[in-house]
Amino acid sequence: MIIKENVIPVDEIDDKQFLKMDEEVLPEEIIFFDLEHYVYKKPKCIGVFGACIYNEKNRSLEVTQYMIENRKEGLDILNLALKYFQRMKENGKKAISTFSGNNDFTVINYLFNKYNISYDFSKEFLSIDLQKAYERDIKTSIGLKKLEKIFNIERQGEVISGSNLAKTFHKIMKDSDYIKRMPKEKIENILLYNEQDVVNLFYIFTNWKKYIVINEEEDDILEEAEANDKNSSSDILDDNDKSKNKGLRKKVEEIIPK
């Protein structure tokens, strides 16, 4: 198992720029989380587990990563992930932040269930999905790389596609010696790619209002228009019902004269 821990200094953050959720959560209470995994018809393994937390005192991000080196470690990485989340819960973390996190949670929950690991994320942590937050505020969907451009985030190293990562982890699961033949640079690039995923989640969360402009006045106008449309539709239906009742009474009176 490759275990990598890194401390990354960050600039001072401004709480006025934070993403606001229904329940207020501070950056130091959040786990920023991302998986690189292999799925073929159903989840096969987690290749890289990546997470980071914000240390307010030291003004830094503490990054933790696990990467499998063979099939046996497919189970080991799940146990390490479980211990990490349990430890973070004990340390006062309240939420997990992801981007399109449903994919990662589907994979890890499936594998937890497969290996009889009992853990319910929904009971332990609040979920902060930045893709859903963007859809809520801007009313359209977006991918992570496009969102990073909005936030002026420049990635280091090469961008690795999900399909290439899946092929790599498939080979690692199939051939226990494959990792030994992998160039060191390739392993470093995979870990750097995952590290930037979780670090960028922190940056996006803490700078949300700086880059995501919500036209609240426009939202109010749209909500008022929708409410008026509903009322108008209701009035029209009421008028139609009244007209039908009048016509029915007239027909009855014609058949049965007073």
Describe this protein's structure.
The protein is of the alpha/beta class and 258 residues long. It folds into two domains: 2-213, Nucleotidyltransferase, domain 5, CATH 3.30.420; 215-258. It contains ten helices and six strands, in the order ββββαβααβααααααα. The protein has a six-stranded mixed β-sheet with strand order 1-4-3-2-5-6, sandwiched between helices. A hairpin with a 1-residue loop joins β2 (30-40) and β3 (42-55). This is Putative exonuclease. Keywords: Exonuclease, Hydrolase, Nuclease. Pfam families: RNase_H_2. GO terms for molecular function: exonuclease activity. Residues 224-258 are annotated as: Disordered.
How are the SSEs ordered, and which strands pair?
Blueprint: E1 2-9, E2 30-40, E3 42-55, E4 60-67, H1 73-90, E5 95-98, H2 101-114, H3 121-124, E6 126-129, H4 130-138, H5 144-150, H6 162-174, H7 178-181, H8 184-206, H9 208-211, H10 216-255
Protein name: Putative exonuclease
Pfam family, one: RNase_H_2
Biased composition (Basic and acidic residues): 239-258
Strand order of the largest sheet: 1-4-3-2-5-6
Question: Superfamily at the CATH H level of the largest domain?
Answer: Ribonuclease H-like superfamily/Ribonuclease H
User: How would you sum up the global shape?
Assistant: globular
Radius of gyration from the CA trace?
Answer: 26 Å
Strand composition percent = 15-25%
